[in-house]
């Protein structure tokens, strides 16, 4: 798939070499060859060029988390990422978490716990939660992780840990208690580790 953003300069001409670059993004396991304006963000490319509208544009300043995706398995605010700087990277959006008709455990948990109201922030919340599971499993501490926790040891996702780690994802509806419960459910389930080591088709949360 190809997409081209080539805005005219002051003289009305277009210059691919000066303003645009060709790159390859692997989105939800599929390669996309694109020619993009150097100013294009990953969020805009996902929504406007690839038709993946799960990631939402909320604040457009990296403050609300509605645009959260996974880049090489780590969560990131896609509204702050220049697409040309992601050449060759693997990006997973909420659309890529399910495996066929089988939802990701976090998607199921959000439904079971009714961890959403309007749903606008939910894709970002779920992608962020997937990243949280991976970070905790890989031993990344948070501000509330007990100082005595062994370096590199998996971190137990208590409610306080989940709240701290998910604090960058805002919910105007105030569904936070249910979100914490949903993430806690998945963390506690046997088999959750298999989802934090690659996810469906290796696209979930690769370490």
Classify the secondary structure makeup into a structural class. Answer: alpha+beta
Specify the number of helices.
7
Assembly classification: single chain
Spatial order of the strands in the main sheet?
2-1-5-3-4
Number of strands: 5
Portion in helices: 25-40%
Explain what you see.
Pfam families: Fer2 (PF00111), Fer2_2 (PF01799). With 207 residues, the protein is an alpha+beta fold. It has two domains: 16-96, Roll (Ubiquitin-like (UB roll)), CATH 3.10.20; 105-197, DNA polymerase, domain 1 (Orthogonal Bundle). Helices cover 29% and strands 13% of the residues. Strand 1 and strand 2 (30-37) form a beta hairpin. The longest helix is centred in the middle third of the chain and has 16 residues, at 122-137.
SSE blueprint and pairings:
Layout: H1 16-19, E1 20-27, E2 30-37, H2 42-49, E3 68-71, E4 74-77, E5 90-92, H3 105-112, H4 122-137, H5 159-165, H6 176-188, H7 192-195
Parallel strand pairs: 1-5
Antiparallel strand pairs: 1-2, 3-4, 3-5
Pathway: Alkaloid degradation; nicotine degradation
Organism: Streptomyces inhibens
Keywords: 2Fe-2S, Iron, Iron-sulfur, Metal-binding, Oxidoreductase
Keywords:
oxidoreductase; Ubiquitin-like (UB roll); DNA polymerase, domain 1; 29% helix; 2Fe-2S-bd_dom_sf; metal ion binding; 207 residues; 2Fe-2S-bd; 5 strands; iron; 13% strand
């Amino acid at each position: 798939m190809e997409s081209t953003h080539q805005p005219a300069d002051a003289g009305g001409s277009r210059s691919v070499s000066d303003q645009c670059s060709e790159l390859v993004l692997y989105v939800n396991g599929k390669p996309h060859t694109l020619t993009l304006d150097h100013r294009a963000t990953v969020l805009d490319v996902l929504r406007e060029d690839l038709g993946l509208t799960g990631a939402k544009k909320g604040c457009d300043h990296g403050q609300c988390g509605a645009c959260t995706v996974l880049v090489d398995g780590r969560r990131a605010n896609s509204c702050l990422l220049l697409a040309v700087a992601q050449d060759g990277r693997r990006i997973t959006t909420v659309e890529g978490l399910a495996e066929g008709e089988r939802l990701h455990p976090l998607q199921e948990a959000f439904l079971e716990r009714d961890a959403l109201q309007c749903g606008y922030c939910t894709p970002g919340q779920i992608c962020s939660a997937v990243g949280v599971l991976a970070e905790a499993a890989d031993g990344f501490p948070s501000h509330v992780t007990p100082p005595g926790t062994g370096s590199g040891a998996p971190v137990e996702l208590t409610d306080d840990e989940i709240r701290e780690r998910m604090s960058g994802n805002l919910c105007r509806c105030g569904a936070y208690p249910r979100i914490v419960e949903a993430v806690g459910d998945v963390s506690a389930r046997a088999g959750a580790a298999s989802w934090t080591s690659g996810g469906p088709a290796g696209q979930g949360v690769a370490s």
